[in-house]
Amino acid sequence: MKSIYLVFVILLISCNTQKTQTDSVETAKTEIAKVMNDQEIAWNNHDIESFMQGYWKSDSLKFYGSNGLTKGWEQTLANYKKGYPTKAESGTLNFVVNDVSKIEGNSYWVMGEYHLKREVGNADGIFLILFKKINGNWKIVADMSC
Description:
Blueprint: H1 2-44, H2 48-51, E1 62-65, E2 68-71, H3 73-83, H4 87-90, E3 92-104, E4 107-117, E5 123-134, E6 137-145
């Protein structure tokens, strides 16, 4: 009888652990989606500095795009401001997220597309973004967009 009870307890613990892990993954995905939604709103208001709040404010941030590798939050901000100086260049941003997957611990990748509708000509591309939870907030630590 003790062995049946022990098996029952182990099954209960296992089921609760699995549900907690599933809940935490779904919570992470929801929170990451909110960061990206906030970025869209900021971008569409031509508020590049607010858009950058989704990125890790660190010299270790990495952005890889058509101009090569950029290191650091400040340089990434400067590049965005240079490349999109007015609303005509920044236009209206729409992200299409195709996959969000846990890598390990508090790290996820997001694969998707970006679409810019703008006066100077539309721009479309793809991205792979790495998110990490830092000090309780989801931040982009690496971005590859082309």
